[in-house]
Amino acid sequence: MPEAANLPNDVEALKGMILERGAKLEVAEALVISQKLELEKLRFEIAYLKRMKYGRSSEQLDRELVQMQLSIEDLEASLAAKPLEVRPAPKQPPQKSVRRPLPAQLPREEILHQNPCSCPACGGELRHLGEDVSEILEYVPSRFKVIRHVRPKLSCSACQKIVQPAAPSRPIERGLAGPGLLAHVLVSKYCDHMPLYRQSQIFAREGIELDRSTLADWVGGASALLEPLVNAIGRYVLATYKIHGDDTPVPVLCPGRGTSKQGRLWTYVRDDRPAGSQDTPAVFFRYSPDRKGERPRAHLANFTGVLQADAYAGFDRLYGEKIREAACWAHVSRKFYDIHVSLASPIALEALERIGRLYKIEEEIRGRPADEREAVRQARAGPELKLLHEWLHKTATTVSKKSELAKAIRYALSNWTALSRFCDDGRIEMDNNAAERALRAVALGRKNWLFAGSDDGGERAAAMYTLIGTAKLNGLDPQAYLRYVLGRIADHPINRIEELLPWNVILAAPAATSLAA
Q1: Whole-structure pTM value
Q2: How far is it, in rounded angstroms, from Cα 329 to Cα 411?
Q3: Alpha helix locations (H) across 344-432?
Q4: pLDDT band of 315, cuts 50, 70, 90
């Protein structure tokens, strides 16, 4: 910056200097944004590669990845707001992107742009050469419609008997909502995590006054109507050899006291596709007001087989002749990963690398029949497990007994029988990721609605998560599936409720699951 004595006295010259410095400042700001963007992208790539290398990532790392992506988006938007001429030149010439065609099933509205009747240059007659067609993607907000059921009354001229078609049944007796609206409210609340009061506000902007209490009545009525279907899914989930189990806390309000307590949502997943099974997957949620061990014992009273879960003490009394335990290597890996991130421990890194070799074998045999998986595991994973077991025992003698490393090693060794069970049974998985994936929807919802209103609300949430989660596992749009079911279940025979299960809907009426159904 020149001293004041060296500044020119000419006004125009001063203006020129100010403009020049302003332009340089804008270029510098764009460069800083560009460098920050490049740094965030590199940080994201490093974090992502760590997760890929060390198997299952921690929940903390997942959150960091999401935050990094949001930061990258903001920086890209800030850089795009700068004039093109001040942005730093890209390091490599940008490759021309290939625009993917818009989905053919989307409805299309054609606008024909008319030409003049004669040549604008000379007035001569025009002849057709062809046409150019371009498409843009537009969004039309969802719309309400009113369906009027008209039932003419007829009178018999001979006996005066009045004849009229029977009134069609409704999902909720004398209720205003049709199946599509009910499905939309349920999916918005339990899949898109939008509380009822927010839905009421959105409806009001569209000119429809629906009080939160009215929506709550609909949710309660629909839950009661769908209860037999939820129970049918529960029976199916537990009628198998191996299930995944896990639980997560849910804050629950105590009505009239203004306080909250800690409820639990439990998930039980049947999904044997990684072992080459053709059985359809399903997930069953249950709610309890606490985490006492009697809760999973009641849930699994009729189950016989293998339960794959974490080392929760409440499961311990389940294990015996009826139920065998299979533990989760993702929990072991996560303990070492957290130590490595916080302390850069070479011992933790070596543990992750050894566990990573087991996961590499699993990637190669995923989807193959259970007997093939068992043979490969015994030939390749068995020796790796033996070496890892010896290394853990040896390492335990070299670290402080009160250290986090010692705790992680003790966790692995104390659960070794359950952790190594997958090696001798191709039907068992190496980890409990199936249950953890099922609980992600609950974690997302917990951030939005914060509390369940009561224990009854927790039970309704468990029922809806069961239907929505199972629909997703079977490749169905949850809203289309619920619309299909709610339009039929009121008149459906209870002894044929299995016909409305997601996989039977796919086989019996695939068109019914489309958005146009």
Answers
A1: 0.74
A2: 11
A3: 346-365, 370-376, 382-396, 404-414, 416-419
A4: confident
